[in-house]
Predict the 3D structure of the following.
Amino acid sequence: MRLSSNAVLVGVLLAFASCALERPPEKRAINSYLADARDLACVRRIMVLPFSEEPGVVADKTRIRETYINELLKLRRFEVVPLPADSVEVVPLDASLRHGRISTDEIVALCNRYRLDGVLLGTITSCRAYTPPHLGMRTQLVSVHSGSIIWAVDALYDASDRSMQSDLRHYYDRVLTHDGNLHGFEFDTIAPTRFCAYVAHRFVGTWEED
C-alpha cells in the first residue's frame, strides 16, 4: 500500500514538473521611456544618426543601424530621412559621437537643412556575434522642438539568459513567419543577422502611443 501511494505521489510530481516545462513562452519586459502624447505628436520627420560604440565594444555598427531602421519603418509612425554619405555634417557628428557627446551646433544645422522634427541616437553597449550571442543597445529620440528626449530604450539581450530564451521563443511564435528551418527559434541565436533583427524588433516595439 505504501509503495502504491509513493507511486501516485511520484506521478503527481511528474505531472506538475511536466506542466512547468511546458510553460508558454513569455515576452520579457524592457527598460524604456515614452514621453507624453503631446510631446510625441509633433515629431514625425526624423533621422537616425550613425550608431556609436561604448569603449571596448566592437560591433558592425552599420549593419545594426540598418537593421534597426528596417524595424523602425515597419512602425509606420515616422518619415525616416536618410543621411547622405557625403553630407557635410557626417564628419563632425562622427567625431563627436566617438567621444561620447554630440555637437549641438551640428544637430541644429542638420535639422535645419533636412527640416527634421527629431534625431535618433543609438549606442551599442555590448556585442558578441558568436554563439551564444548578445547585443546591448541604448537608443534615444530627441525632439528638435523641445530639445528633450521623448523616447528612450536601454536593454541587453543575452542568448544565454533563460528569460531571454523564453522571449525569443515568444518572438518566433508570434512575430516571424515560420520558414521551416530545422532549428526553430534557436536558429535566431546562431544567425547574427536574425538575432540583430529580433533585438531591433523588441526595441522598436516599446513605442506604444496612446
Q: What stands out?
A: Residues 26-204 form a domain with the Rossmann fold fold (CATH 3.40.50.10610).
